[in-house]
Design brief:
The chain is mainly α and 139 residues long. The chain contains 4 helices and no strands. Keywords: Membrane, Transmembrane, Transmembrane helix.
Length: 139
């Protein structure tokens, strides 16, 4: 008896003749069945397993995102209020007197105050970001 070669098996499987076993010996039909089951098994990819703490990590990430949005909103409101009240104060002082003194002070030291404010805000932002990253990595 001669065995079926791989090319002939592949050709039969591709043509869909796995169900039609006419003209094949019982050994060849059995071999064809084994090959068809093998190709079916290889065609199905295994489902990846999720880690046991997947749900905890997802809820923690969603909670931190929601908290971050609330913090951003609050910080925006605080910055807007500070700018509004600061601008109103300066406008009131200029309008009601003493404008030359304030203009002279701002023209001399204005860039120092602006850069200092930007530096303090940058330090605050980086500190919060690094602390949050350290807390999330610790979980």
């Amino acid at each position: 008896m001669k065995e079926m070669d791989d090319k002939k098996l592949q050709e039969l499987l591709e043509k869909g003749l796995a169900g039609q076993k006419a003209g094949l010996s019982s050994e060849e039909a059995e071999e064809l069945e084994v090959y068809s089951m093998l190709f079916e098994a290889l065609g199905n990819e295994p489902v990846p397993d999720l880690p046991h703490d997947f749900a905890v990590k997802v809820t923690a990430k969603l909670r931190s995102r929601k908290q971050r949005m609330a913090e951003t909103r609050f910080n925006g409101i605080v910055v807007f209020c500070c700018l509004f009240f600061g601008g109103s104060s300066i406008a009131a002082i200029i309008h009601f007197g003493g404008g030359e003194v304030i203009f002279g002070f701002i023209s001399r030291y204005g860039t120092i105050f602006i850069l200092g404010t930007i530096l303090l805000l940058l330090i605050q932002y980086l500190d919060q970001k690094l602390v949050k990253q350290a807390l999330l990595k610790g979980r």
